[in-house]
Amino acid sequence: MNIDINNRAEVLIQALPYIQNYYGKTVVVKYGGSAMEDEALKKAVMGDVVLLTLVGIKIVLVHGGGPEISATLKKLGKESVFVGGLRVTDKETVEVAQMVLAGKVNKGLVNLIQNVGGRAVGLSGMDGHLIEAKMLDEKLGYVGEIVAIHPEPIKDLLEKGYIPVVSTIGCDKQGNTYNINADTAAAYIAGALQAESLINMTDIKGVLQDAADPDSLIVRLSLNEIPKLQESGVITGGMIPKLECCAHAVEKGANRAFIIDGRVPHAILIEMLTDEGIGTMVTA
User: Fold this and answer.
1) Of 54, 97, 134, 223, which alpha carbon lies 20 to 30 A from 143's?
2) How far is CA 257 from CA 70, 131, 150, 212, in A?
3) What is the CATH architecture of 24-283?
4) Nearest one of 157, 155, 153, 151 to 113, comparing CA atoms
5) Which 3 state secondary structure label does DSSP give 141?
6) What tens digit of pLDDT does each residue of 13-60 get?
7) pTM passes above 0.70
8) What is the dihedral of CA 256, 48, 164, 197, to 10 degrees?
9) Which are the contacts of 35, defined by CB distance < 8 A and separation ≥ 6?
């Protein structure tokens, strides 16, 4: 029993310098993958977010909800079509995306945060023209490319002690609505806020030197190393856009970006508040 108590005390002592470093600073968490679908993991993530807020760290939670959109479309008898990993989004589909992301998913997360002791307010990218977008490609329909981030609504909520929960629906000045990739939106928001960190929760450990060896995690990457690893074939497939988002966030003003395994309980706390960390860190 004493060993267990001592270990707990050691963990708290180890966390202190990290809490001091992050105190008063902004961290953008891109929330997705299994951590969003597993109820136990979901509750753990919301608890972590509230804990970090209570020790003086400003958390912005940015979420997607692709599986929820697909499930709703299926119930409506509409098949989801993807091109290059992006959902082909006609007028009806973007209306469903808006309903699911800005409604069901967003408000569900806000409610969960409040149930574990936090204060949260839900936003979509349409609120205050937070995410201004344009059509990415006519073949994809209402899939948006980000034109600008207007972060004032997020800043206002942070100043008042709330956790902004952002769904990635964007808009243009003509009143059109667009579905935005959540990784991309989180990166742009982190850059616009000059965040201390962007934390991208995924279903993989991070960047692996050898995809077949889970112990070959690359703990730290600088921006100039990413193209080399891409050329050598170390970075392939779905990891390419995730690292491009991390690179964008850092280039636009975030101090660092992480790719972490959201399937690990309390992964955010392990990455932010311990010596070991858990994923891959991208820095300038």
Assistant:
1) 223
2) 29, 20, 21, 24
3) 3-Layer(aba) Sandwich (3.40)
4) 157
5) strand
6) 889 999 999 999 999 999 988 888 888 899 999 999 999 999 999 999
7) yes
8) 0
9) 41, 42, 45, 201, 262, 263, 267
